[in-house]
Design brief:
This protein is mainly α. It has one domain (about 15-85): Arc Repressor Mutant, subunit A (Orthogonal Bundle). It has four helices and two strands. It has a two-stranded antiparallel ribbon. It is elongated, with a radius of gyration of 17 Å. The termini are far apart.
Length: about 80
């Protein structure tokens, strides 16, 4: 099963998180990471949005993805409360 035209590489979860870690902790720009690792800037940006840690307390951080999932749960829960009151 080969796709002609645009080649899309499949990157491992570990590799994506490593790129985001370099962006967050080593303060590398999306452009630097794109050039260094041969990943498009758009792809690096989407990984940063998805995997960047969100600090939820002094000692705890979660990924952006986990944070958004929590927000959805919280929104559903609070919407139900408003409808019932």
């Amino acid at each position: 099963m080969s796709h002609h035209g645009k080649k899309s590489k499949k990157y491992s979860e570990e590799f994506r998180q490593q790129i985001v870690c370099l962006h967050v902790e080593a303060r590398k720009t999306v452009t630097e990471l794109s050039n260094e690792y041969g990943v498009s800037k758009g792809t690096v940006s989407s990984w940063v949005k998805k995997y960047s840690p969100v600090q939820i307390s002094e000692t705890e951080t979660i990924t952006r993805k986990e944070f958004e999932a929590l927000q959805k749960k919280t929104n559903l829960w609070s919407n139900k409360n408003y409808k019932n009151s």
